Amino acid sequence: MAGPPGSGKTALALGISQELGSKVPFCPMVGSEVYSSEVKKTEVLMENFRRAIGLRIKENKEVTELSPEETESMTGGYGKSISHVIIGLKTVKGTKQLKLDPTIYDALIKEKVAVGDVIYIEGNSGAVKRVGRSDAYATEFDLEAEEYVPLPKGEVHKKKEIVQDVTLHDLDAANARPQGGQDILSLMGQMMKPRKTEITDKLRQEINKVVNRYIDEGVAELVPGVLFIDEVHMLDMECFSYLNRALESSLSPIVIFATNRGICNVRGTDMSSPHGIPVDLLDRLVIIRTQNYDVADMIKILALRANVEDLVVDDESLAYLGVIAQRASLRHAVQLLSPASIVAKTNGRDRICKGDIEEVSALYLDAKSSARLLQEQQEKYIS
Ligand SMILES: Nc1ncnc2c1ncn2[C@@H]1O[C@H](COP(=O)(O)OP(=O)(O)O)[C@@H](O)[C@H]1O
Ligand SMILES: [Mg+2]
């Protein structure tokens, strides 16, 4: 996606991620991220690539699906340890109290399980997964980011096909740093001295092998997701060469780049290229042009934004904000909304009116006006 600043590239990416839902991986990153850590640049790219590739694994396992009624832990204070955990479980067919191993307690904490949630516990590994909130609680709050699920129907003990959505990076991380109580690997980890492990290329190759075998056997299904690299012109030649190669691998996600650059140098070289992207990579892309919004669109977006932030803005103010957006930038106009609402409240109003906007737009400058002012008053500043 190529277009001037403020033409909605990042907003489009957010929209895509919402549309994909939680089952398809979406990994957003900003080009400059590759320089911000102590890790090699290509390592950052590789990790994000693997975050954007999903695997849907189907397994049949003995599980106990439940809705904990109450948990009673023997946590106690300092120095004491948990000897066991008691959970009250409920399905449509009945209730049951289970006395469980303390490792389950850690898993319950990690999954932030509370009374009224539907969870399952995997019989052989003791892994706990939170499925969602029981729909009996669905009317608790008006607005929630919860997924409501019905109370489990069968017996408290039952077999169930579990579908797990993981990314390749999850698999890398799980195998590099086995964590408490989830599988045999971790048991070994607990017995051995804790060692510093990290994700290596060798580990990734091994994981790829297993993944490919799972896919061949029909146990797992590949879910290619989306890797979104914003401000892609921040990447340098080394990164671009790496991307060129990675895009050809069979385990590759869909990659979206966004840039607001015209013809400029590829970072770190004196080679000039459209969008700051080397031509051989550019050659493989389809380019979507994003264009500046017109006033009507900007007013629509401002109204949306006000709505999301629960602000009441009258039409006259919206139109005036539209003018500001056109003169300065859409982003600047959006940023004036919340100070304007504070001014309105201070004056005892719930509704933002044009005067409030005028007041705050006199207080806050946008980048362009500030630069103009600097030029006009150059002699007053130290340079
Ligand atoms: N379609 C849209 N719906 C809602 N808000 C939008 C939309 N397009 C742009 N915006 C808002 O306009 C501003 C600029 O858009 P942005 O996506 O950041 O531009 P770009 O990434 O192209 O520089 C942001 O505050 C963004 O939230
Ligand atoms: Mg952007």
TrEMBL record:
Keywords, sorted A to Z: ATP-binding, Helicase, Hydrolase, Nucleotide-binding, Nucleus, Transcription, Transcription regulation
SUPFAM superfamilies referenced in this protein's UniProt entry, alphabetically: Nucleic acid-binding proteins, P-loop containing nucleoside triphosphate hydrolases
Residue span, TIP49 P-loop domain: 1-294
GO CC field: nucleus
One protein family per Pfam: TIP49
Entry keyword Transcription regulation: yes
Primary location recorded for the protein, binned into one broad class: nucleus
EC number: 3.6.4.12
Protein name in the entry: RuvB-like helicase
UniProt organism field: Morella rubra
Family (UniProt): Belongs to the RuvB family.
Domain RuvB-like AAA-lid: residue ranges: 301-366
PANTHER family documented for this protein: RUVB-RELATED REPTIN AND PONTIN
Family matches, as Gene3D superfamilies: 1.10.8.60, P-loop containing nucleotide triphosphate hydrolases, RuvB-like helicase, domain II
GO molecular function: ATP binding; DNA helicase activity; hydrolase activity
Top EC class, one word: hydrolase
Catalytic activity from the UniProt record: ATP + H2O = ADP + phosphate + H(+)
Protein localization: Nucleus
